[in-house]
Design goal:
211 residues, alpha+beta, 3 domains, two-stranded antiparallel sheet, 4 helices
Length: 211
């Protein structure tokens, strides 16, 4: 508010010599109406500013006491954990079944490769029908099967069966992301929970409801 010397009409009662000027609404007032105008501003400030501020503060205090946000998001994380554990368990069980099936398959293949050699050895033993070349040839066949068997069972990079586990970034498998929405004077923060077990969002709440 400001006081002016020039004579003007009061914006309320239209009386002359209104010597009070409000720099907010840019209007002139007589002393009486000027006091009334100030009172109205105080009421407006209390109703629109102080009360709104107190309501927001009260909501924050209730949030701290109830811990609703923490419980809600923690519940989402717990559900994601249980779902992920279940999926990992099923994936491991499937890998076990696939491993047994593959081992049986390769064992059967080696047995089939060995069968004709076994029959030939028995036949030559019974008939005592073999010479040096036969021994060399049979030894070569047995050695080939032995090499296949060793590749099948050895623990190095040349073995025929291996377990491949795609690398997982455990720090990004599930994470909390805070998003800020900047405005002229006020900004809000959104919390978002992201889970990528199947490359999809497990939980996503936006706006002031609350990765």
């Amino acid at each position: 508010m400001a006081t002016v010397n020039e004579s003007n009409l009061c914006s309320v009662c239209n009386k002359p010599s209104a010597r009070r000027f409000c720099i907010g609404c840019k209007k002139y007032f007589c002393p009486k109406d000027f006091k009334e105008h100030e009172q109205q501003l105080l009421i407006k400030f209390d109703n629109e500013i102080v009360r709104s501020h107190d309501e927001v503060l009260d909501q924050i205090q209730k949030l701290e006491k109830s811990n609703y946000l923490l419980l809600d998001l923690s519940d989402q994380i717990e559900k994601w954990k249980n779902t992920t554990i279940s999926k990992v368990r099923r994936a491991a069980e499937k890998a076990q079944r696939d491993l047994i099936e593959l081992i049986d398959k390769q064992r059967t293949t080696i047995i089939k490769q060995l069968e004709p050699i076994t029959n030939e050895i028995r036949c030559r033993q019974e008939e005592e029908n073999f010479v040096e070349n036969d021994i060399d040839e049979l030894r070569q066949k047995i050695n080939e099967i032995q090499e296949n068997l060793e590749r099948f069972t050895q623990k190095d990079t040349t073995k025929t069966i291996s377990i491949k586990n795609d690398q997982i970034d455990w720090n990004r498998l599930i994470y909390i992301r805070e998003e800020q929405q900047n405005r002229e004077y006020i900004y809000t923060k959104n919390i978002e929970i992201k889970g990528y077990f199947n490359r999809r969002t497990i939980f996503n709440k936006t706006e002031l409801n609350v990765i």
